[in-house]
Specification:
Blueprint: H1 3-16, E1 18-23, H2 28-42, E2 47-55, H3 60-65, H4 68-91, E3 97-103, H5 106-117, E4 121-126, H6 131-137, H7 140-147, E5 152-156
Parallel strand pairs: 1-2, 1-4, 2-3, 4-5
Helix pairs in contact: 2-4, 5-7
Length: 163
């Protein structure tokens, strides 16, 4: 096969590849979702991945009492830390991925990322809280399941080892 035929085949694969959003927060639950996505790609799914982390916005009092630049740096560092584990897993593969740190309320921001980036699906970890607790606390996974325009796969983590 000549070089242009290989390049053409690669472009066709990219056009047919899914783009999957992976919301991560640094938890083992989120890493289980990243591992699940890696396994799917390893089994033949053509996909690129988007590691996304959404940090809560700074409150006015924080901005007034603390240097706004320091608040921004702390938010960025927290997002980078939350994404680090997923990035480390993906760096061990050849899977294409991008990183999308964001600030705001998680569900609306993630819904916006799905639309803006043209994501075809979401894979995310879930903590397995009961329905009452999820309703009272406002579950991000529940919000995406109900509001996303694309399929959402929830990955449950087997019981964490007791330490």
């Amino acid at each position: 096969m000549n070089v242009s035929a290989v390049a053409s085949a690669d472009r066709a694969k990219q056009r047919n590849a899914m783009k999957i959003l992976l919301p991560v927060d640094g938890s083992e639950y989120a890493l289980a979702a990243v591992r699940h996505a890696i396994r799917l790609v390893g089994e033949g799914l053509q996909a690129s991945l988007v590691l996304a982390n959404v940090q809560a916005p700074a409150y006015l009092i924080e901005v007034l009492l603390v240097d706004p630049d320091a608040v921004g740096r702390a938010t960025g560092a927290t997002a980078a830390n939350a994404i680090e584990g997923g990035r480390a897993l993906l760096d061990q593969t050849t899977i294409a991925y991008q990183v999308e740190p964001a600030t705001g309320e998680p569900v609306p921001v993630l819904l916006g990322l799905i639309e803006r980036l043209g994501c075809d699906a979401v894979i995310m970890g879930m903590r397995g809280h009961g329905a009452l607790r999820a309703t009272l606390l406002g579950s991000v996974s529940q919000g995406l399941v109900h509001s996303a325009s694309v399929p959402v796969t929830l990955v449950k983590l087997a019981a964490l080892p007791v330490t």
